[in-house]
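From the methods appendix. Each design record in this collection lists the tokenized structure first, followed by the designed amino acid sequence. Records were kept in a plain field format so they could be parsed without special tools. The example shown here is representative of the layout used throughout.

RECORD:
FOLD TOKENS (194 positions):
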């Protein structure tokens, strides 16, 4: 699961070098991105990748709650997600993301080189605006000690193919993300007495 992630101003220059159009109205200030907030997202429009602000989360048909994540194992089976996963893919940009363990202790995850995390997602129209959902997968070894789910992370050379659809979506949905660095200020320890 992914419920919050972090962006910073340095990402704007990095992304500007690899994407043809970056919306000038984007808010790149150093901050956490929470569900229901606008965030920078890459998508393809008219054959070119562009970065635009999109709201994180879509309202379900029943109107209860906000859907912010979708499981890779079931995304193609669910009517709410299927068409978007197949035809409206996007990539959220993050420097790091957060997960909490059962004791409500927060851990921070980032790439080994502290580079940009390309989080696979899809978008749809919700509440009369483009809104995105992140795909989550089973946690790899670097995240599993904290949480059993993690975002589906694409490599820098994979996200263009995720957007243009040249690779079948099923190949990406089976992908295991790379190992990440973990920071945790506090972690409850347990002791066993002999």
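DESIGN:
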């Amino acid at each position: 699961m992914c419920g919050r992630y972090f962006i910073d101003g340095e990402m704007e220059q990095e992304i500007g070098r690899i994407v043809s159009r970056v919306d000038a109205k984007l808010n790149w200030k150093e901050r956490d991105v929470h569900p229901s907030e606008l965030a920078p997202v890459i998508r393809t429009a008219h054959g070119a990748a562009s970065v635009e602000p999109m709201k994180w989360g879509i309202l379900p048909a029943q109107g209860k709650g906000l859907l912010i994540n979708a499981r890779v194992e079931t995304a193609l089976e669910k009517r709410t997600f299927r068409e978007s996963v197949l035809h409206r893919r996007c990539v959220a940009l993050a420097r790091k993301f957060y997960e909490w363990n059962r004791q409500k202790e927060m851990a921070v995850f980032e790439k080994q080189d502290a580079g940009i995390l390309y989080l696979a997602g899809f978008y749809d129209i919700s509440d009369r605006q483009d809104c995105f959902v992140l795909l989550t997968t089973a946690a790899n070894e670097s995240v599993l000690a904290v949480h059993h789910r993690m975002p589906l992370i694409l490599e820098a050379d994979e996200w263009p193919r995720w957007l243009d659809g040249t690779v079948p979506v099923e190949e990406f949905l089976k992908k295991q993300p790379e190992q990440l660095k973990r920071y945790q200020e506090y972690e409850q320890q347990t002791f066993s007495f002999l």
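APPENDIX NOTE: The first helix runs from residue 10 to 16.
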